[in-house]
Amino acid sequence: MAGQALGMVETRGLVSAIEAADAMVKAANVKMVGKEHAGAGLVSIYVRGDVGAVKAATDAGGAAAERVGELVSVHVIPRPHADIEGIIPQEETKKGVKK
User: Fold this and answer.
1) In this structure, what CATH number is given to the domain that contains residue 60?
2) Residue 6 contacts residue 80 (beta carbons within 8 Å)
3) What total of structural domains would you count in the chain?
């Protein structure tokens, strides 16, 4: 997914993270590529797509998370550098098959 923007929404609590993820994939043509539980109730959701779509998705996801819980952070990286692709979540797989 090199060359695509990365959108990140971090929440406190699973319910607000699920609400954010749902809003993001409904708001724009983005693909959810990962989630991370960082401890202390922090949950991060990651999406990829073109810059405009990722910006629209993270705006919608952040607003949705605030409605039902606590929004911690929202950020978009328009063109992540190739050197950091290894630490960026990649598309999740289910039973070894990419979605």
Assistant:
1) 3.30.70.1710
2) yes
3) 1
